[in-house]
Amino acid sequence: MASQGKLIVPLRLTRESVYLPDKSGSFTALLRSLNTISSHALAECYSSLTALPVSPAVTPGQARRLVEENIVEAAERVVELGRTEYLNALQRAADRGLESGAVYDVLHVLCAEKASADELRTFNGRDFRRMPPEEPTTLEVL
Fold this sequence. Notes:
Rossmann fold
C-alpha cells in the first residue's frame, strides 16, 4: 500500500504543554504537518481541553470548536478502528505487558499502521517507545 503521510498524536494537554511548545514553534509546526489522525485522538483532545487548569476554563462548546476547527479541518483523514482492530490493540498491549492508559496509545499506533503513515509524530517518546509502530511507519519523537 502506498504511504499516506503523517499521523499526529495529540498531547495529554497541561498548561505547560499548551504554551511552552509554541515558543519554539514546534506545536504550531506539528499542527501544520497534520495529515492523518486517529478518531480516538479527537476525544483525547476534547477531554484534555476541558480539563485544563486555566482560568477561564475551556467550556465544552469551545473545546468542540477548537478540535473541529484546528484538528479535524486540518486533517485530510480521520482513521477509525473496528471491533477486530480494538481486540488487536488489547492483544498488543497484553503482549507487551502494558497497563492502564497505555492501551489508548496503542490505538494511535494501530491507526498509524492502518493508514500506512510514514511517521507517527508525538511529544510523548517515553510511552510510545514501548510500543513503536511496525514498518513502514516510523516513530518520530518531537
